[in-house]
Each structure stands twice: as structure tokens, then as C-alpha cells.
Amino acid sequence: MNRLEQHSTLSRLYALQLEVFPEHEDFLSRRIANSSDEHLVELEHLAQVIARIGEGKLETIARDYAWLTNEMLEEEYYFRRHGTYRLSTFEEAERTVYANAEFMQKYMNGVLFSHLWWGNHSRVIIHFHREFLSRIKQGAHHLEVGPGHGLLLYLAANSPRTGSVTGWDVSATSLRDTRHALEAMGVHKPVTLEAHNIVDAPSGKFDSLTFSEVLEHLEQPRDALKTLRALLNDGGKIFVHAPVNSPAPDHIYLFREPEEIVEMVRDAGFAIDETVNFPGMDASLERARKLRLTISTIVVGTAI
Fold first, then answer.
1. Is the pTM here over 0.90, yes or no?
2. 275 and 147 share a domain?
């Protein structure tokens, strides 16, 4: 029996992706074949959320995912030739990526579907949902900096352990998109969205904090983590997710080993509770380290 038959939304998005990007069939078939039954159940839930976010434009999102894979390949070729990312400053990223509205829309659409098709991406979301949210204090005041599509913010808002949920982003446009996504996903708990740059973060104290896929976009990630520490109450929990050896159009800070991320979090004033590594391409961690393949690294810490 087709393993996707039991997962109607995942099956529908899978068929749509292959329709617009048939060259991806081998990759996607391996993705499903290498997924446990339990993981497919999680992917179905994620597919339902993504389908609600993208309602009315799913074909466009699937096409933009195909476009994104080609963009990522170009960055991968550069990384293999030079051993560095193409960009190294925020000004370069602003000029070549963030200021290009058409590029950014396609990029964000493609990233949305990557949460389904790239195992390391989906496993980060599942770990956040299953593990991190279950460990925060009951009634936690929760903050996410850089919520993007709002997937993690949605999960936090739907968690019975959060008392209040806040999202900060430097871009009012990004926050508008986050709000749209939260409304599409059917969040019932009030979520506060505010435009802030963490360099000039307002005062405030939170019990838990999410900082996912932001460090690699910063020139000074250490300073950002220290700022976040000041926003957490003692004993507060932080969930940091950053990629290792992961070239992308707007990545500027290269982490070569997961331990570099762990060290930064520790030096910012956190005791390390947990480190989890999810290599891309279903590679083993040993192989990913040896060949400098992408690794999605999670570091969970307690503010001390």
C-alpha cells in the first residue's frame, strides 16, 4: 500500500510538488521511504498547517520551492569551491536579497515547503513541539525573535503551557505575513506581534524564548545571544536553532561545527540542557561532519 494514502494532505502536496517539479521525484521518494510511520503522522499534521497558510497559492509555493532548490545549489557550488559563504555582511544581504521584494517572496514560499521536504527542517519543528514546549514552566511568558512564517509561534500559542506569546521582528511586513499565517492556522490564544530590532530591544522579561534560523543572518551573533539572555528571567529556557555548513542566498555567518553554536550559547549566560543535531540529506552525523554537509543544530539552554 502507498504509505501516503493514510495522509491525505501530505499526499496532495506531494503530488502537487511532483507535478511542477518532476525532477525532484527521486529525492522526494527517498524522503518518504526513509521516514518512519510516526514521522509521517507528524508530517501530515505539518502539511495541514502549511496547506492552510498557503491556501489559494499552493501551486505557486510548489514552483517557488523548485526555484529555491536551484538557488541553493548555486550557493552550494560556491561553498564547495571557496569554503565560505558568498555573502559576509548584512549590507550585502540587504542589497541583494532583502531589498528585492520578488526574490524575497519566492524565497519565503520555497522555505515554507522545505519544512516538509527537508528532513532536518521538519525534525527541528517536531522537536520544538514535542520536547521544548513540554519543558517550559506552566503559564510561561514566551517570546520568539524572528518568527518568519509563524510555524513555531503557532505551536507555542497552541501549547497549554504558555500563558502569553509574543513575536518580534525587524520588519513590519514580515510581521504582517506572520499575522496572516497565524490567522490562517487558527490560533485562538492572543499573540502580540511587535517590530523591534534586538540590538535596541525594549526592556521585558520572558520565561521562554525561541531564536530559530536567525544567528546565521547576523554579523555578530554573540552579541545577539547576550541581548536575548537579558530578556529572560533566571531559569528561563531558550531554544536556539542554527544551521552548520548551510550555504543559502542570505546566510552570512558560517558555523563550521555544531560545537561553535553550543559555545556561543554557553558564553552568553546559559547552562546547556541539550544539543541535538539533524543532518540534511538523511546523512549520518559522522558523514555530515566529514563532508561538511548541512546540519541543523538545536541548543536548548537555561538562563543562569
1. yes
2. yes
